[in-house]
Structure formats: structure tokens, C-alpha cells
Amino acid sequence: MDFSQVSWPEIGQATLDTLDMLGLSALFTFLVGLPLGIVLYLTSKGALLQNRPFYAAVSLVINVLRSFPFVILMIAVIPLTRLLVGTSLGVRGSIPPLVIAAAPFFARLVETSLREVDRGVIEAAQSMGASYRQIVWKVLLPESLPGLLAGITITTVTLVSYTAMSGLIGGGGLGDLAIRYGYQRFEKEVMIVTVVILIALVQILQMIGDKLVQRFSRR
Amino acid sequence: MIRLEGITKHYDTGSRRVTALSGIDLAVAKGEIFGVIGHSGAGKSTLLRSINLLERPTSGRVIVDGTDLTALGTKQLQEQRRKIGMIFQHFNLLSSATVEDNIAFPLKLAKTPKADIRRKVSELLELTGLTEHRFKYPSQLSGGQKQRVGIARALAADPQVLLCDEATSALDPQTTNSILSLLLDINERFGLTIVLITHEMHVIRSICDRVAVIHEGTLVEQGRVVDVFLKPQHPVTLEFVEQVSDPVELPPAADLAARLLKITFLGERTYEPILSKAVQATGVTFSILQGTISKLKQVPYGQLVVKLEGDGAAIERTIETLRADGLDVEVA
Ligand SMILES: Nc1ncnc2c1ncn2[C@@H]1O[C@H](COP(=O)(O)OP(=O)(O)OP(=O)(O)O)[C@@H](O)[C@H]1O
Ligand SMILES: [Mg+2]
């Protein structure tokens, strides 16, 4: 094994690209997934704004998106990606498929965390004259914060592996590097280095997430 | 202060229809502590929750402080609910907020200025004896302390009515009593109208002025606690009274030379030697067969079953003397 042949600057650039992809896709995933999850929760059976048909429709779309394997989804949405960001390549081209894959997943995690909030606490807020908006912002979100943080952690970690997969369609970043060097040119050293970096990344994210969850747990 | 008119509530669960309340009429006066007692599933919570429309009745009107809540839109209802505080069996505090922030919560909902919030919260911490716990989270408190936070929170918006849903059912007897005296204190100090529901007669006896007994969704008896407690009419009421005191029952008459009486004392008279004075004057003898002396809210009361023996005419005179002294006397 000869690591001297490895092009470190290229690895550095790929790492930055991966972080770039990860950061942007995570940001958009949360921006889309959080409201979606809240709406799912609010319209679900027995909740404040129960709406069966609406819930069923949104739920179906989410289930469909979630049952696509990511590699297939990535290719299937290429036309939409071009429409949204002008290209299907590079960091930019990888964001839409990442968000489309991860946001429904995150929305479900949000829905599940909100369900954990004690119904009695919501009732207490209602009895004090809280509006629906206040119940969401001042009761549901603060009360489910540990669960939401855990959901954010899981989603971000999932996104790490998705970003690596998006290398398959020229998404750039560490996955791209691993495929081009490791798979196509049999330079297994590059493959090993990229895998080690990805493992380290996941470890760090999980650690930060766990710390935050612990910090905000009050039960 | 509160008027319920013809409140009926059905729950449709699949094919079955459950009638939780049927045709409830109730009036609670300003400043009184009104208790509703009933067995599990009788409809107590449903009744209480219909007062602030957490549960909207299928039919009937809810009038609080002159406003018909059932006729209001969502926004106005939210406004009116601020005048009605509520505390719960399981406290229902925000687990993510400190004691202080829990108490401040209704004020923040009403967008009260920060300085006012701070002043009000300090006052309430003082009132409920929680000042040293102000920075703790609910998970760090005992049940009694949590309920105190619940009470402080319910009082923060200066409500005129306080609804208590089994507020002491999750607490031990000693803590129950301390919470009850806090409620009584608040009632006396601020003239707050309190409606509480419970399945424990002890709670009713300790602090309520009037009581209603609910059974299978209907009110089967209501009146002043003293009357309901000392002369229960409905079998369900009797069951509840027996929770806190052995029934003082008048056995059937035994022989002619003796009469059995059930005497009820109320108020300060309970401690006066009325009975012994009466028998001294008439020369009959008495023996106590059964009896109880206790308190209703702060009013002492006693019930005795006694056997009077002696001359027939003297016995009659004794009974008359007792009645003339204002005691309630039943003769077997
Ligand atoms: N959301 C609901 N859906 C269907 N039935 C309900 C619902 N809430 C209450 N009920 C029914 O209404 C009846 C009265 O319930 P309620 O909770 O008012 O009783 P309760 O007197 O408060 O009892 P407990 O002492 O156990 O709290 C019960 O038969 C209950 O099963
Ligand atoms: Mg109940």
C-alpha cells in the first residue's frame, strides 16, 4: 500500500466539496422538512387541526419519495434538478436530489418527535388561551427539542452517505473521488482515505448530536 | 359566575355512541368553591372541560362571567380562556421550562411586558412557597411542588375562575391537605371562584361550599356541602359520604322504656354540653351508641346516636329541649 501516490490537495478539495454539499443539503432539508413534519403532525388523527384527506395525501407523497432507492431517485429527478439549479452536476446539481430524498425522511422524524409531546401540556396551553401558532412555537417545538435534535443528527448522518452516493452521477466530493480513483482506476489507497474521512465525519456529527440532545433533555 | 344550561355531550366512537353528559344545569356563584364528585367515568372531567370549552358540548350553553362562550369564535374564545385558570391531575407543566418560565407562560402568551411578568412571577413564587425552586425544572420537583407550580401558573393571568381537574388525586394525603389549604387561601384572599372535581369526599368536605354529585352523566344531587353531607339523599351520595365517616344510622326502636335519637350538631354548638344539660334538667339517662365529630370546611359538626332511658314524659321533654336548642333530632 503506497499512500505517497495519493493526491492530497485533491482529497482536501473533495472533502470541502462534501462539507459544502452536506451543509447546503442539510439546511434545505430542515427548512422543508420541519414545516412539513409540523403540518403532518397537526393534521394527523386526534391532533389540533385533524384533516384526514390532507394527511393521507401528504403521507402518500412522503411514502412514495421514501421508498425510492436514493441512486434511482437521483437519476429520476435530473430534469427537475436542471430546472431548479441549471445543472445536474457538481455540488449545486447534487442539492435538489439530496433534499428531495432527505426532507420526507426528516419530516417523518419531526412528526414522530412531536407526537411524543404530552397531550396534557398542549391542553394546558389551550386552556390558557394559546393560539395554534403559539402552541407550535412555544409548546410543541421547545418540548420536543431533544427529539428534534436527534432527528437532525440522524438525517445529517444519512445525508453523508447520500452525498457519497451522488458521486455516481458526477456530484463531486469524496464519493466522486472514491469512484473515479478507487473503482475506475483501482487506486485503493484513495478509496481507503475517503472512507476514513467519511467515518470520521459521521463520528463527529453523531457526537455533537448526542451532546446537544443531552444538553436539552429535561425529563 | 358560571352557568351551565342543558349541557349534553355525546362521543361517537365508531359505531357506538357514548353519552358522557346529559342535560346538566349548574350555577356557580362568584367567590364560592364548588365541588363536583362522581365515580370514575361519571363524566366529571368532561363536565369541567366543557366550562372552558376544551371539550365542546354537543348541545347546551356555557356562560362564564356573563359571556356565552359557546357563541364565541376561536379568537374571542382564546381571549376569554385567559380569565379561566385550570390545574390538572398530572400537572401538565412544560418539561422544557423552569418553574419561573412555567409560571410566566400564560403572561408570555398574552404578550405582557417583561417587567410586569417578573413582578407577577415573584409574587406567585412567594404565594406558593416556591421561591427557592424558581430555577429548577419540573422533573426536579416533587408532586406537591409541581402542583404548586400548576396553581401559580393558573393564577398568573389573574383569572376570575379556577378549574381543578382532580388536582390532588396524584398526591399523598399530607400533600393533598397542603394543596387544599393553598386553594382555600387563594379563594379567601382573592375571592376567586373555584370549581373542582374529585372522587374523594375528603376534598369536598375540606374546602367546598357547595357540591354536586354526578352519576352516569347526570347530576343526581346538589346543594350546600353541609346539607348533602349530613343528609345524603341519593345512594351514590351516601357511598361518598361513607368514604370519610362511618354512617351514623338510627337503628329501629328497641323497647318502650327507651328511645333512640340521632342528633346532629353544627357549628360552635358542637362543643357545647347541650345534651348533658338537657338530661340533667329532665332526669333521664343517656348512653351514646355511635357518633362522630369532625369538620366541614372550617365548620365543626357532630352526629350522635343516643339511647335515652327513663320516664316517657321526661324523654319527650328532653327531645323538645334539644330541638328548642336548635339541634336536629331524628327519633326512631
Ligand atoms: N374522547 C373521548 N372519546 C370517547 N369517549 C370518551 C372520551 N372522553 C370521555 N369519554 C367517555 O365519557 C365518559 C365520561 O368520561 P370522563 O373522563 O368525563 O369521566 P370522569 O368522571 O372524569 O372519570 P375519571 O374519574 O376516571 O377521570 C366515560 O364513559 C368515557 O369513557
Ligand atoms: Mg377525569
Provide a compact summary of the structure.
With 219 residues, chain A is mainly α. Helix content of chain A is 80%, strand content 0%. The radius of gyration of chain A is 20 Å and the shape is elongated.
Provide key terms for this protein.
A: 219 residues; 10 helices; 0% strand; B: 332 residues; alpha/beta; Rossmann fold; Alpha-Beta Plaits; elongated; binds magnesium ion; membrane (chain A); cell membrane (chain A); MetI-like_sf (chain A)
Architecture overview:
The complex is a heterodimer of chains A (219) and B (332). Chain A has 219 residues and is mainly alpha-helical. Helices cover 80% and strands 0% of the residues of chain A. In chain A, 41% of the residues are buried. Chain B is α/β, with parallel strands linked by helices and 332 residues long. Chain B has two domains: 2-244, Rossmann fold (3-Layer(aba) Sandwich), CATH 3.40.50.300; 258-331, 2-Layer Sandwich (Alpha-Beta Plaits). A six-stranded mixed beta sheet of chain B has the order 6-7-8-3-9-10, with helices on both faces. A four-stranded antiparallel beta sheet of chain B has the order 2-1-4-5, with helices on one face. Chain B is elongated. Chains A and B meet through helix 6 and helix 7 of A and helix 2, strand 6 and helix 3 of B. Magnesium ion binds at residues 44-45, 166 of chain B. Chain A: InterPro entries: AA_ABC_Transporter_Permease, MetI-like, MetI-like_sf. Chain A: It is found in: Cell membrane. Chain A: It is a multi-pass membrane protein.
> What is the radius of gyration of chain A?
20 Å
* Biggest interface, CB < 8 A: A-B, 21 and 31 residues
Order of helices and strands of chain B: EEEHEEHEHHHEHEHEEHHEHEEHE
Instruction: Write out the strand line-up for the largest beta sheet of chain B, numbering strands in chain order.
Output: 6-7-8-3-9-10
CATH superfamily of the largest domain in chain B: P-loop containing nucleotide triphosphate hydrolases
* Count of β-strands of chain A: 0
User: What is the CATH first-level class name of chain A?
Assistant: Mainly Alpha
How would a textbook summarize the main sheet of chain A?
A: none
User: What distance separates the N and C termini of chain A?
Assistant: 51 Å
Shape of chain B: elongated
- The averaged pLDDT of chain A comes out at 91
Please indicate the percent range of residues of chain B in DSSP E strands (runs of 2 or more): 25-35%
